[in-house]
Amino acid sequence: MTAYQQSRVLFTLIELKIPKLLSNRALTSKEIAQKKKIEPIAMERFLSAAVSIGLLKKIDNSFSNSEITQEFLVKGKEFYLGGQIERQRKRSFSVWNNLTKHLKNWKYGGEKSLPQTDDQGYEAMAEQHKLALLQGFALAKAFNFSKYKRILDLGGGTGATSIALCKTYPHLESIVYDLPENTMIAQKFIEENELSKRIKVFNGDFKKDALPENFDAVLLANFMSVADAEENQKLLTKLYQKLPKGGVCILSGWIIDNSGLAPKISVLFCLEDICWNAPDVERSEQVYTNWLEKAGFENINCETYFEPTKMLYGLKNKD
User: Fold this and answer.
1) Taking CA atoms, which of 105, 214, 253, 285 is between 20 and 30 Å from 197?
2) Is residue 226's pLDDT more than 90?
3) Exposed, middle or buried, 175 (CB in 10 Å: 0-12/13-18/19+)?
4) 194 and 143 assigned to the same domain
5) Does 51 share its domain with 191?
6) How many domains does the chain have?
7) Which of 207, 226, 229, 217 is nearest to 287 (CA)?
8) How far apart are CA 259 and CA 267, in angstroms?
9) CA separation (Å) from 62 to 9, 85, 109, 186, 200?
10) Does residue 208 share a domain with residue 113?
């Protein structure tokens, strides 16, 4: 009943830019209150709440960042996630207010109604980029890409996963396949990381356009709920046909376990899909395994590599 109060403390901590203020020094609540022009008693209670949920530390009468806040919530840090948190506050928090309405209105297989300006564009995608980059580096450690030469990063967004994989594996090349408005943004990130020679972008809509050629691994990260079961199974069959013998198909995302009850964040994210009228919701390990097997893939495995993110992958063992 009160979980939203903890979320609100996190959101306000970012809005007030307190992690940046405490990035190099500890301050008393009175000093912070003076800098933020907030009543000292109110500020002291707010800072104490942030300590209670692990965002800050208090030693004697001074407050400082906790380790996780210092690493991920100080603007300017390599993996700063404050933008993603702000996006969650502005974009997601409000739609959950109408969850009952969304549950009643959602129809399986419907088209996404998410406003383009809300979830697209450089600013919105840049906020998601660093979290995707963290996931990409985690995937690079969890799965051995050393024997693969070129990845098809289908629905690759900002290219974050491809960037992380190519930085980890110097021999690796990648194709980021996405809608034109997204590949334009991906190209900027790819150029910033000086990877234009190894990561190429390919414009297209997998539902109606041709897929690229010449890849021996395919990655579908946070992808499967953008289409219904029938479209996804057709896609997996196409990918199987295009892969060479020994090729791999990797599904990555908040896959729920076979009980349908965990991981908690993944189960809740199914409701996020419903709130935004996505065509489908996250499926279970067994469902995705069945889809891969039906397409022809074998030796299918599933494991968690970046809690709660899982990867489920299968090999093409036949010509």
Assistant:
1) 253
2) no
3) buried
4) yes
5) no
6) 2
7) 229
8) 11
9) 19, 25, 53, 42, 50
10) yes
- Cα-Cα-Cα-Cα dihedral of 156, 159, 163, 169, to 10°? 20
Residue 119: per-residue pLDDT: 53
Closest CA to 153 of 142, 141, 163, 167: 163
In 3D space, the residue among 133, 135, 214 whose CA is nearest the CA of residue 173 turns out to be: 214
Hey, is 103 helix, strand or coil?
Answer: helix
**Are the CB atoms for 118 and 138 separated by under 8 Å?**
no
Average model confidence (pLDDT) across the chain: 93
Pair (166, 272) in one structural domain: yes
Q: What is the DSSP letter of 284?
A: B
Q: Tokens in use for 313?
A: 């992958």
In the numeric block, the tokens 């600013």 are attached to 123
Give residue 287's pLDDT band: very low, low, confident or very high (50, 70, 90). Answer: very high
Whether 95 is covered by a domain: the verdict is no
Q: How far is CA 164 from its chain centroid?
A: 13
* Residue pLDDT, tens place only, 131-147: 999 999 999 999 999 99
The answer as to whether 93 is a domain residue is no
> DSSP code of 277?
T
Upstream peptide bond of 115 is cis (omega within 30 degrees of 0): no
Q: Residue 246 has which token pair?
A: 């020994």
For residues 215-225, give the mean pLDDT: 95
What is the Cα 277 distance to its own chain's centre? 18
> How far is residue 45 from each of residues 25, 30, 48, 55, 106, measured CA to CA in Å?
20, 11, 5, 14, 41
Instruction: Give yes or no: residues 129 and 57 share one domain.
Output: no
> Using the 8-state DSSP alphabet, how is residue 276 labeled?
T
- Pairing of the two strands 298-306 and 309-315: antiparallel
Strand 56-59, strand 62-65: pairing: antiparallel
Pair of tokens at residue 254: 């908040």
- Computed on alpha carbons and rounded to an integer, the radius of gyration of the chain in Å comes to 21
**pLDDT at 90 exceeding the cut of 80:** yes
Contact call for residues 232 and 301 (beta carbons, < 8 A): no
**Complete DSSP assignment for 232-266:** HHHHHHHHHHHSPTT-EEEEEE--B-TTS--SHHH
